[in-house]
UniProtKB/TrEMBL annotation:
TM spans (from-to): 96-115, 127-148, 154-174, 186-208, 220-237, 246-266, 272-293, 305-326
Primary residence: membrane
Membrane topology: Multi-pass membrane protein
Compartment(s) where it occurs, according to its Swiss-Prot or TrEMBL record: Cell membrane
Keywords, ordered alphabetically: Cell membrane, Membrane, Transmembrane, Transmembrane helix
Family: Belongs to the UPF0324 family.
This protein's name: Integral membrane protein (TIGR00698 family)
Signal peptide coordinates: none
One protein family per Pfam: Cons_hypoth698
């Protein structure tokens, strides 16, 4: 016990480096962050490093990384638009629209009945279902205020989808290779079956550039469903006077894609901006991993995980079967 206490004191004791006070935790965080800026770091590796940090020495900057994660992800997604062609994106979006509509409503309906069977509260069930159906944490953050959900309900939903995101980021690329999925098939599968945009883009980027283009386009088109689902939620749960959070960064992505396609003078900047966006995404996943401490994982409880896993397995398996046979 004394050894453990001494170790934690060592991690938290400030030391003077170059005239400034730093703890060993902060130094470890900084070194890992610098590594995530290098070409050797991929999105899965960055997430893994963040998870290791969270489970060992802990994240020394939880508030800062939480605030930066959403902004950095949004900027990175807009940057990816400078590497995409609008004509190809329209084709990808057209292919994904039917999958999107069916999977969103199917997930919400399945989540409702599975949640009742598990005896979970309506708010937690709806938040996890929306996160699975649309775009993970972004959907939960948008739907939570509409429901006037409690902080612990939002935290339980976020914890569930973030853990499943981490699993998907590592599991999906090997599955895609084992099944010899095409770039188009894998990109479409990622967009439908993985919750958060960050993990969708990370998994697709690990598979190939065409998969990345398809996955990003379909996922962002899917994210726009936050708006009608939020309106429907307000009506279903009889909430009046609520403010619906619109994901405006998606329009930035569309604008960047249009500029890259129709403004020849801007095209030379495309590779640089895309490269910076991929680095930003890698750092985003490091921050997400660093926020998933053992305490966060345990605080969710078993039943939300059961619901999240059930919905995830159904949507990922069903969409995989359809895509392999129809695309």
């Amino acid at each position: 016990m004394d050894g453990t206490a001494g170790f934690f004191r060592l991690l938290h004791t400030p030391r003077v480096v170059f005239g400034r006070d730093f703890t060993l935790r902060q130094v470890a965080f900084g070194l890992l962050l610098v590594f995530c800026l290098t070409p050797r770091a991929s999105p899965p590796i960055a997430l893994a490093l963040g998870l290791v940090l969270a489970q060992t020495v802990g994240n020394p900057f939880p508030g800062q990384t939480k605030n930066l994660t959403a902004k950095l992800l949004q900027c990175s997604v807009v940057g990816l638009g400078f590497g995409m062609n609008a004509h190809a994106a329209v084709q990808a979006g057209r292919e994904g629209i039917l999958f999107t509509v069916v999977s969103i409503f199917g997930t919400l309906v399945l989540g409702y009945f599975a949640g009742r069977w598990l005896g979970l509260g309506r708010h937690v069930v709806h938040l996890i279902s929306c996160g699975t159906a649309i775009c993970g944490g972004s959907a939960i953050a948008a739907i939570g205020p509409v429901l006037r959900a409690k902080d612990e309900e939002v935290s339980a939903a976020l914890g569930t989808v973030f853990v499943l995101n981490a699993i998907a980021l590592f599991a999906f690329p090997p599955i895609g290779h084992a099944l010899h999925m095409t770039q188009n098939q894998f990109g479409l599968w990622c967009a439908i079956a993985i919750h958060d945009t960050s993990s969708v883009v990370g998994a697709a980027a690990a598979y190939g550039n065409q998969a990345l283009e398809v996955a990003t386009t379909v996922k962002l088109a899917r994210a726009l469903w936050i708006i009608p689902v939020a309106i429907g939620t307000a009506m279903l749960f009889k909430q009046k006077g609520v403010k619906i959070k619109i994901p405006y960064f998606i329009f930035g992505f569309i604008l960047a894609m249009l500029v890259n396609t129709f403004v020849p003078a801007a095209q030379p900047l495309g590779p640089l901006l895309t490269h910076l966006a991929k680095i930003g995404l890698t750092v985003t996943l490091f921050f997400i991993g660093a926020g998933l401490s053992a305490r966060v994982v345990r605080s969710v409880g078993a039943k939300p995980y059961v619901l999240g896993v059930l919905l995830w397995l159904v949507i990922s398996t069903a969409s995989l079967c359809v895509i392999l046979h129809a695309v």
